């Protein structure tokens, strides 16, 4: 994957093209719509407003999407009312059904990209945390070693030298030899003090006073866990939604489609809010990763007393870089060598003039050996190689893994949001085209007013009734003449009724 984004690990940091891409976006403050400086500065209110401007763009698109979806639903409802005419053919459901099935699989693929981006982001943050802890451990180890050196040179060796001088004054009767040995002990004490002073200078230059990032690292680790867990749950909910859409489209069920539309609306709200947050982070990371060294040096000078030459030494760490601790380490080693020479000379004279004082000389020699070993460790630790490697690894974690992971989340979120919007519209269309399910009522087959079982004939009868002329234009046909021989009529319901009674014109009876 890193070959795809043209990333190769190296000893020095190179700017990722994705960081340059997001850094090139115009930084516009939402307050006044004025263009701002793109230099990464989270303490600047105007700069934060320029990031919020880009975060608000997906939110505005979300509002527009909801309005358009509502307008589409209203139009679809009006169109559905006009389509209730039984003489019009019902539209096919195959096209929207197939679209929903294909879109569901595409959504699942996009969610796979989102899972990958979430994991890549977590890996980058994990690398950053480990590298930052490595830098803190290195500096803490330097402080520990120098404190041990100061303890040995400042308390153990002077105590042993004072005991040695007291024994020499008691046991050595030769004043000349005693004077020489006391001069050696004085030289030993002075060399120890000078070595301790030079090593203390190293500790002061590299001290983390005011710059301890252990609390910041702990907070990043804590919040990243919940970020990863929350994003995983959101992606899982979206997977369930896509599977539910697939089920609803396969079964062509109106109720499942309505429920899937509700889930789509929830997904759209989640997706575009997340896209806004991811765009905020991505533009900020792009600004940081274009020139991270300048930001680190500026913030360090504000919060700590570390000199600029020390920071440049660890950040650049080239073959031509001058070690700012080399002079102090060289002088400390020279003073330790002088102290070792004094101990070696003392050891020979004490063995000759005061053998009982040999234990004090041996104790001083052991303490100096420990100091020399600690000094070698400090020399290796303050070298720029280890800290610079951790620094580059931390930058690669943030400016390559994390920015690429958030980029995957951003792209998948944008495409997924647009696709689910189409799925929402198509679900409503498919639900409108699906015929309502007939409800089987219990009817009495002996009911004389029961319509014919042929529904087509019933609809045709209603249609013809609608085409009958109005009452004003309706012509009443003449009554049929009454036949005296008319048989009993038969109704369509199978029951016989007698013929109506016969009426005769009244004729008067003639008088006789």
UniProtKB/TrEMBL annotation:
It holds the Pfam family Tweety. The chain crosses the membrane at residues 51-78, 99-117, 225-248, 255-277, 403-431. GO terms for cellular component: chloride channel complex; plasma membrane. Keywords: Cell membrane, Chloride, Chloride channel, Glycoprotein, Ion channel, Ion transport, Membrane, Transmembrane, Transmembrane helix, Transport. It is a multi-pass membrane protein. InterPro entries: Tweety. It is found in: Cell membrane. Residues 450-512 are annotated as: Disordered. GO terms for molecular function: chloride channel activity. The keyword Glycoprotein applies. Belongs to the tweety family. Probable chloride channel. This is Protein tweety homolog.
């Amino acid at each position: 994957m890193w070959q795809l984004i043209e990333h190769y690990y190296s000893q020095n940091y190179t700017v990722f093209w994705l960081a340059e891409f997001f850094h090139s976006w115009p930084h516009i403050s939402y307050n006044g719509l004025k263009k701002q400086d793109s230099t990464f500065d989270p303490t600047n209110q105007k700069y934060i407003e320029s990031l919020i401007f880009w975060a608000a763009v997906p939110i505005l698109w979300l509002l527009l999407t909801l309005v358009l979806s509502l307008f589409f639903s209203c139009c679809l409802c009006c169109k559905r009312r006009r389509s209730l005419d039984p003489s019009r053919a019902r539209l096919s459901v195959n096209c929207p059904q197939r679209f929903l099935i294909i879109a569901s699989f595409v959504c699942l693929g996009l969610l796979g990209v989102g899972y990958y981006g979430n994991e890549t982001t977590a890996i980058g943050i994990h690398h950053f945390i480990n590298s930052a802890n490595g830098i803190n451990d290195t500096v803490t180890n330097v402080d520990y070693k120098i404190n041990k050196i100061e303890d040995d040179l400042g308390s153990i060796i002077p105590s042993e030298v004072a005991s040695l001088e007291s024994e020499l004054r008691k046991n050595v009767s030769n004043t000349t030899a005693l004077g020489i040995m006391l001069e050696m002990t004085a030289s030993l004490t002075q060399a120890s003090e000078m070595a301790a002073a030079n090593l203390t200078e190293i500790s002061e230059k590299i001290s983390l006073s005011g710059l301890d990032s252990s609390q910041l690292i702990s907070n990043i680790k804590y919040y990243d866990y919940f970020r990863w867990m929350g994003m995983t749950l959101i992606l899982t909910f979206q997977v369930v939604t896509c599977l539910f859409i697939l089920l609803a489209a396969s079964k062509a069920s109106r109720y499942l489609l309505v429920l899937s539309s509700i889930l789509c609306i929830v997904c759209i709200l989640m997706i575009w809010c997340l896209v806004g947050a991811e765009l905020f982070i991505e533009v900020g990371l792009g600004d940081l990763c274009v020139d991270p060294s300048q930001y680190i040096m500026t913030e360090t000078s504000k919060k700590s007393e570390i000199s600029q030459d020390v920071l440049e030494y660890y950040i650049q760490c080239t073959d031509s870089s001058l070690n700012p601790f080399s002079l102090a380490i060289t002088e400390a080693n020279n003073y330790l060598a002088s102290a070792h020479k004094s101990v070696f000379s003392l050891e020979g004279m004490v063995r000759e003039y005061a053998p009982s004082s040999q234990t004090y000389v041996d104790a001083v020699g052991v303490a100096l050996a420990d100091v020399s070993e600690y000094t070698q460790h400090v020399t290796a630790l303050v070298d720029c190689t280890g800290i610079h490697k951790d620094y580059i690894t931390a930058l690669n974690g943030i400016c390559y893994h994390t920015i690429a992971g958030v980029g995957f989340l951003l792209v998948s979120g944008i495409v997924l949001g647009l696709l689910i919007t189409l799925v929402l519209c198509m679900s409503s269309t498919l639900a409108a085209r699906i015929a309502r399910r007939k409800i089987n009522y219990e009817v009495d087959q002996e009911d004389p007013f029961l319509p014919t079982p042929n529904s087509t004939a019933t609809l045709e009868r209603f249609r013809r009734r609608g085409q009958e002329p109005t009452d004003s234009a309706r012509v009443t046909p003449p009554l049929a003449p009454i036949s005296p021989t008319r048989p009993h009529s038969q109704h369509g319901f199978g029951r016989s009724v007698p013929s109506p009674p016969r009426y005769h014109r009244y004729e008067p009876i003639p008088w006789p």
